[in-house]
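Appendix C reproduces, verbatim, an entry submitted by the partner laboratory led by Prof. M.T., so that reviewers can inspect both the input and the predicted structure.
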Amino acid sequence: MGSTTKEYRPSEKEPFMNERQREYFKRKLEAWKEEILEESRSTIASLQQDTVAEADLADRATTETDRTLELRTRDRQRKLISKIDEALRRIEDGSYGYCEETGEPIALSRLEARPIATLSLEAQERHERRERVHRDD
């Protein structure tokens, strides 16, 4: 198999979510997860380094701001990893790539850009419109 996977791009011409596409998205998701885990490992390392007592008040304030940002980033990373894990589970159970709302296939271009998408673009837009309406209430 080797190098053929590298050039492979899912295409509308083949059956939707055939084995090759599922394998492609599985690898894409796993690589993304690995990247995030790598980032969070370096975040943790830098948080541990920063724990050195800060004498200067301004330095301490800067460190606190950095720490807050890092923790927010880690929270976002954690949520992203759980969405990636959900997507990997959907690949296993065969529901990956299909809109949760309509059951229709999600466009490959959307999955390519956002492999954790669970809604088709149309359903996502409807969802966001509803949220906007309720936010304005």
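DSSP finds five helices and no strands in the chain. Additional entries are available on request from the coordinating office.
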